[in-house]
Write a structure and sequence with these properties.
The protein is built from 13 helices and 15 strands. The protein has 312 residues and is α/β, with parallel strands linked by helices. The chain has two domains: 178 residues, Periplasmic binding protein-like II (D-Maltodextrin-Binding Protein, domain 2), CATH 3.40.190.10; 104 residues, D-Maltodextrin-Binding Protein, domain 2. Strand 3 and strand 4 form a beta hairpin.
Length: 312
Amino acid sequence: MIRARSLTLALSALLSLSTVAACGSDSDAPTKVSAKTASLGTLTPGVIKVAVQPYAPYTSVRGNKIVGLDGDILAYAAKKLGLEIKPQVTDFAGMLAGVQSRRVDITIGGVAWSADRQKQGLFTDPPYYSPPAMAVRDGKTYRTVDDLKGLNLGTVEGYVWVKSIQDVPGAKLHAYPDANGVFDDLGAGRVDVGFLDPLIIIAAQKQRPELKISTQYLTPPTAAQVKAKPSYQYFQPYQTGFYLPKQDTKLEKAISAQIDAMYKNGEMAKLVRKYGGDPQQFLEPAAEVATARRGVDRPADWNPPSVAPSGQ
């Protein structure tokens, strides 16, 4: 619910490259591709085309390389699979559309699993889980959904929180093309709370102190609240995933296997710490994670990846 540099300058600069390939064409494919790598079925053998938005410290593009938490995770998996990464910069809606129309092989960067999205694409196992983080103005405290009633609430267009916000009594939704818009209006007082992924809020606190914002975590709504308003499920911790076209079952399974291995060998916890996250928050799934996907896009006995209690 999915990312150091100046958010104001870098986001605007990278967004100007929207939908433009950040590097070479199909002719840049590796000259030698193993049969195993070729069997993964990427659009160009040996190359994995990745749609990303500027969303540091989860994803951003420097030169021809995707950097950030999601970027590092994919780089690890791609190296193991013999794939060369080719990024394409777009916005969040473009990321999803690129996958669903199979113009790219995959998109990454805090993409939340949802029942609707999985109908139009494939999700890997969760590389990490995201607690319900809020960017708020200093001196303000919001703990529960009831505290949000009647407020101006911001998020990015297409994010799962849009539906949740729309169902908060009296609240007004402010949806922006990117996170920078949320922070600008939060700093100006036009928005009371911004719903974004936690690492980006933490980064903005450090890089834009003039905004005078803090990070708070929403107490997840109760089961009764979610039953009454199903959209409130997105105010609970959510599972992210790398998102692929429906046809790419072999590639999805191969990347999921690498993600699961990273939980077991400690690599995932190492990367979460690198970007300021706590493995206990990011790598231990809530009970709802398994039940949401069992019998939907995972077998009935599927268990989501998790670190040991020590975070190792």
